[in-house]
Design a protein that fits this description.
Elements (H helix, E strand, L loop, with lengths): L19 H21 L3 E2 L1 H4 L1 E8 L6 H9 L6 E5 L5 E6 L5 H16 L3 E9 L1 H29 L2 H25 L2 E2 L1 H31 L5 H33 L5 H20 L1 H8 L1 E3 L3 E3 L10
């Protein structure tokens, strides 16, 4: 009888918890570097958050002449104009900075750009965001991420115990900070689409952590005298195959979206790609060490903190 194919070995005994110091140190260094980048360099906010106009254009014949476009638009007196070539030589993105005079001035500037482009260029997409709207969108983005984190904390607390909730949130904050740090390092646009990616990442990362936490809870009841460090290591190894395979299949699906998708979703798919990697890392190497550090209850009857080396298995 055909039994299928195992793409990842079962019954592994990797000493993950014994090496937790190296993993947590690496994560701490990455998170600290991300915080420094965000504090010094900041994020390259897109049109959604800083206001302005964006045009996605395509030439009807020939390729995009960036120098010619820059010369035409530079004579309009609209301030900073950015032109970004896309994957196809016929496509490009044009960004103009927020205009003084409110949304009316922004609309007028967009009209000037459309008139200056000429008949050989087709405008496929236009986004115009005024200063008032961009401020509201920034606030909405911060509120969305904050509410999501609080909601996840309450869910984990209700389903498990507060120790699991704190460990999950610490791992989740780790994921979000490092992902935002990568956006700052690479200078990618950060807008509402990327906020949506962070929220999706939060749900994905927590899902991975919950799978590990479920197994930890089962083993806490099954092995009442097993040292906590050994129990956590056993639980991670028992769920490792599922975690790696789920992450790999999701990564491949999003990779196709990144490679073959349009520029509109490029930031979202990149955030998801990196988020899957860092979320898998934190679920395996960060959440459980935090749980060991905080301490958990064994069978919800008594607190268990550090592992007792003299204790044995049930």
């Amino acid at each position: 009888m055909f039994k299928g194919v195992d793409f990842f070995p079962h019954g592994t005994k990797f000493p993950i918890m014994q090496m937790r110091g190296y993993f947590v140190t690496a994560s701490a260094i990455a998170a600290l570097a991300a915080i420094v980048l965000l504090a010094t360099q900041g994020l390259n906010f897109g049109i959604d958050f800083k206001g302005g106009s964006l045009f996605e254009i395509q030439t009807k014949t020939g390729t995009v002449d960036v120098a010619d476009l820059r010369a035409k638009l530079g004579d309009l007196g609209l301030g900073e104009v950015q032109i970004q070539e896309l994957d196809l030589p016929t496509d490009a993105l044009i960004r103009i900075e927020e205009q003084q005079g409110g949304e009316t001035a922004q609309q007028q500037a967009a009209s000037k750009v459309q008139d200056a482009l000429g008949e050989n260029i087709e405008i496929r997409r236009v986004e115009v965001v005024g200063p008032t709207v961009s401020g509201e969108l920034q606030q909405a983005g911060v509120i969305a991420v904050t509410v999501a984190v609080i909601g996840i904390l309450l869910y984990i607390w209700f389903r498990f115990e507060w120790q699991f909730g704190v460990a999950a949130i610490l791992a989740l904050v780790h994921d979000i900070i490092i992902t935002m740090g990568v956006f700052s390092l690479l200078g990618f646009d950060f807008g509402l689409t990327e906020v949506a990616a962070l929220l999706t990442l939060a749900g994905y990362s927590i899902n991975d952590s919950v799978v590990v936490f479920d197994r930890i809870r089962e083993n806490l009841r099954r092995y009442k005298k097993m040292p906590l460090e050994e129990l956590l290591n056993l639980s991670i190894n028992e769920t490792l195959s599922r975690t790696i395979l789920t992450s790999t299949t999701t990564f491949l699906a999003v990779l196709a979206l990144y490679v073959f998708g349009t520029e509109v979703i490029r930031g979202f798919s990149f955030a998801m790609l990196f988020g899957i990697v860092i979320g898998t890392w934190s679920s395996i190497f960060v959440a459980s060490p935090f749980l060991l550090w905080i301490g958990v209850k064994r069978d919800w009857t008594g607190a268990v903190g550090k592992a007792n080396p003299a204790a044995g298995k049930a």
